[in-house]
Design brief:
Distance between the termini: 32 Å
Number of strands: 12
Helix content: under 10%
Strand content: over 45%
Structural class: mainly beta
Number of helices: 0
Radius of gyration: 14 Å
Largest sheet: 4 strands, antiparallel
Shape: globular
Strand order of the largest sheet: 3-4-5-6
């Protein structure tokens, strides 16, 4: 599940159930985004209601997500790709092959940054 915390009181404000193996989380582009490693998907949570607005299919074993630069970026660990979600349309608009085992992603400073574990 996902917990929403109040940064001024340190209290739990909401408990949002997710049953798909919640991994990475990011806030931006109008929502909160959670990579679901067991469901090969990303959950879009609406901050105003603390509810899952939609679940979007991505690649295999998504582990990290970053919102920024007009998109939501998801690392798909097992298939070596990054999915780009259009946050307004709520669907994958690009899948980029990046090499084996991408596991972290950040959006900002003029790009989207991805770590890849070559073994």
């Amino acid at each position: 599940r996902v917990l929403r915390l109040d940064p001024t009181t340190d209290r739990v404000l909401a408990r949002i159930p997710l049953r798909l193996g919640a991994e990475g989380i990011s806030a931006g582009e109008g929502a909160v985004w959670v990579a679901n490693s067991l469901g090969d998907s990303v959950s879009q949570i609406e901050p105003a209601t603390n509810r899952v607005a939609r679940t979007i299919r991505v690649g295999e074993d998504p582990v990290a997500v970053a919102a920024g630069g007009g998109g939501v970026w998801v690392t798909n660990y097992k298939d070596g790709t990054v999915s780009r979600i259009d946050p307004k349309r709520g669907r994958v608009v690009a899948t980029i092959s990046v090499g084996p085992n991408p596991d972290h992603v950040a959006a900002g400073e003029g790009g989207v940054w991805v770590t890849v574990h070559i073994r």
